[in-house]
Predict the structure of Terminal protein.
Amino acid sequence: MPNLSIFQGLTGRQGSPTGGSVRDMIIGAFGTTKRGGPNTRAAAESLGVSQRSVQRWIAGEDRKQRNAPRSDHLSNLRVKARQAVSTKKGRKASLDQSRQRFAGRKSTKLTTHGLQGPEGGGKGYSRVRTVSIELSGGDVDAMFDAYERGGDSAVTDWLQQHHSANYVPGWTFENIDHIKLD
């Protein structure tokens, strides 16, 4: 199962592509608009329904016109949401907005929180830590490329190599609970 916090941290999409509410799946699969709401236009185009139908699916409980998606549309939405995190094409589409956001920056701060630390020859120096490190523009692109190519495991390997070279030699990640780019 993909690490949802890595997906959310790298793509900026706070929805849940692995299930949950219809709203979360739409945000996970199709992202948000510039104003922060779910991208109902992209969802409608991809699912073959009207934008208004998607808006009714995610309307609040207090709304008069609130419909649940038909089972075939819901199934298709689940597939699209899952593919956003589990396929190379889906990860590429999910990262497009982040790539635009960080394009042209000289550096970006990467913060990782989780069980991590230097290799200790069996002494166990891994602890729950929060580590912040500066990434160059090329490093950000390389990290995005690694995630796009191989998902969680590839980006974790890339982070270990980068931290070992630029932070502390032999740095390892047991798990990543939170990742953030500023």
In short: The chain has two domains: 4-87, 104-181. The chain has a mean pLDDT of 88.
